Amino acid sequence: MALSMKTNNGNLSIDDDVVVTVIGVAATESFGVVGMVSKTLTSTAFEILNRQDFSKGITIQHDGDMLIVDVHIVVSSGVKLTEVAKTVQKQVSYALEKNLGITMKKVNVYIDGVRS
Fold it and tell me: DSSP secondary-structure letter at 50?
């Protein structure tokens, strides 16, 4: 599904793959984040996703012109988990607003693992 917007110059359509890439880059560049993991994690072992696989660790729901995003991450050991989660929320919201002009409704962060 794509996000559609009307502008003064016409219609704009942004594919979800573009949105997922912006979200994934913003999340993985946040302090304390080791990487993203699959949202369908079924065992205690996890595999860090590459940029091409970010969609496996991110869920997007459209709510009108706003988005609700779920991000699944692995963090470094020794970091304050709540601060890392808040940072990811802020980074994702900022990146989407700055790069795509998309306003967030919610950014839900799921810490699925800790890596030393």
Answer: P
